[in-house]
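hey so u asked for the seq, here:
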Amino acid sequence: MGQVAGLLLEWAARGQQSERGIQISLALTREEIAHCIGTTRESVNRILHTFQQRLIIDAQGSILTILDLAALEGYAGA
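ran it, structure tokens below
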């Protein structure tokens, strides 16, 4: 979870602030994200789903919104 959170935080630095949070346009597929951090696509899917259930992120297609930056930083160990 920490690696996915860290990657999302890196991308958040270039994201757009909206009224809901920080929006990121995902240029990579979940398979490519998994390859970047040395895990499986299934693990990335499971982690993103968990973050979404906990209202840390909202993922709609290729647009991901970080709803709770502090929680994401906690998972990243920041």
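The longest strand covers residues 22-25. The chain has a mean pLDDT of 95.
lmk if thats what u needed
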